[in-house]
């Protein structure tokens, strides 16, 4: 708690995370190029600086929560001259594995330490400090980040060397995107065959079709009252972010020469869906387009 933390990227995820660090008693200086994001963070009592480099100067730990790998690499190049040796960089953004490794290499070259620590749990998890971190980096750097990750989340799983956190995140979300489409196709077919949603749910949720997309985030209203389908697919995990993660999985698979046929198809279905429905609704809303034959 006595370590000085720079928090770069005060968007939907970064702001509540920075607020939780302040509440935990940490000394936090934030930065975001969007003035409205800065204003919202300040009104939640997060101190801010005029630039990323100003926020990072003298920090012991630099946390980034940015849109893409390009943003992280640009940001690291910008701030590395302002930090001292040994500074710990924790990137919580979801970015491609290659950029994560390149970012860590830049940091290590500057005699600093780097881990990638992308999250699952969404804005709700960021606010409630119940995020799951998937962590890549050397064991000593990961160990020194652990108290801070514990203040922001419920779990941190060390997955391997630099980039391993990002790899675990995109592989998990590839399972999730594919399984949501599978569950949605099953409900669409079941409805045509005269099955009630409840009957299909009662069978599949206690049989071999059981999965998170069915039993927690059920894409039809009724069987799981807390799923986004019961509130017009508002809140939850936005389709645009699912598409982003499926594209990251796709480009990693292409780079490695792995034929992820279902992962690629899932990316195409979500691209179609986001074109017709926009990026904002929970990703389980894809069932509405599957039912209408509007995707795939
Ligand atoms: P967001 O767009 O709300 O926030 C990103 C912020 O970064 C923006 O405010 C932007 O202005 C700022 N930024 C850009 N360049 C910067 C720089 N050089 N220095 C400081 N700030 C800079 O996005 P978000 O929803 O908060 O997501 C952030 C990351 O977390 C993404 O990689 C996303 O994929 C990942 N993620 C999001 C969710 C979610 O549910 N929103 C869940 C898991 C992971």
From TrEMBL:
Catalytic activity: 3-hydroxy-2-methylpropanoate + NAD(+) = 2-methyl-3-oxopropanoate + NADH + H(+)
Keywords: Branched-chain amino acid catabolism, NAD, Oxidoreductase
Domain named 3-hydroxyisobutyrate dehydrogenase-like NAD-binding: residues: 163-289
Transmembrane regions listed in the UniProt entry: none
Domain 6-phosphogluconate dehydrogenase NADP-binding: 4-160
One GO term (biological process): L-valine catabolic process
Pfam family, one: NAD_binding_2
GO function terms (MF aspect): 3-hydroxyisobutyrate dehydrogenase activity; NAD binding; NADP binding
NAD is among the record's keywords: yes
EC number of the protein: 1.1.1.31
PROSITE patterns: 3_HYDROXYISOBUT_DH
Keyword Lipoprotein included in the entry's annotation: no
Associated pathway: Amino-acid degradation; L-valine degradation
Active site: 169
Enzyme class: oxidoreductase
Family membership noted in the UniProt record: Belongs to the HIBADH-related family.
NCBIfam families: HIBADH (TIGR01692)
Name this protein carries in UniProt: 3-hydroxyisobutyrate dehydrogenase
């Amino acid at each position: 708690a006595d370590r000085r933390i720079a928090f770069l990227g005060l968007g939907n995820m970064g702001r509540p995370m920075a607020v939780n660090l302040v509440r935990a008693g940490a000394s936090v200086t934030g930065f975001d190029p969007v003035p409205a994001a800065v204003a919202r963070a300040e009104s939640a009592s997060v101190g801010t600086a005029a630039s990323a480099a100003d926020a990072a100067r003298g920090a012991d730990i630099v946390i980034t929560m940015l849109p893409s790998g390009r943003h992280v690499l640009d940001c690291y190049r910008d701030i590395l001259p302002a930090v001292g040796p040994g500074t710990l960089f924790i990137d919580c953004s979801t970015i491609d594995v290659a950029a994560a490794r390149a970012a860590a290499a830049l940091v290590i070259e500057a005699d600093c330490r780097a881990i990638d620590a992308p999250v699952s749990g969404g804005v709700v998890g960021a606010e409630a400090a119940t995020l799951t971190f998937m962590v890549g980096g050397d064991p000593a750097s990961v160990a020194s980040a652990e108290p801070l990750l514990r203040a922001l989340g419920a779990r941190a799983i060390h997955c391997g060397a630099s980039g391993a956190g990002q790899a675990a995140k995109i592989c998990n979300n590839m399972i999730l995107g594919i399984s949501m489409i599978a569950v949605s196709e099953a409900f669409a077919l079941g409805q045509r065959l005269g099955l009630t949603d409840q009957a299909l749910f009662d069978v599949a949720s206690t049989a071999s079709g059981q999965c998170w997309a069915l039993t927690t985030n059920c894409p039809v209203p009724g069987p799981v009252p807390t799923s986004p389908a019961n509130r017009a697919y508002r809140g939850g995990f936005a389709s645009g972010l699912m598409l982003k993660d499926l594209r990251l999985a796709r480009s990693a698979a292409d780079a490695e020469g792995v034929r992820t046929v279902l992962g690629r198809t899932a990316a195409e279905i979500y691209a179609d869906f986001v074109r017709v429905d926009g990026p904002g609704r929970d990703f389980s809303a894809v069932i509405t387009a599957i039912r209408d034959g509007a995707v795939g």
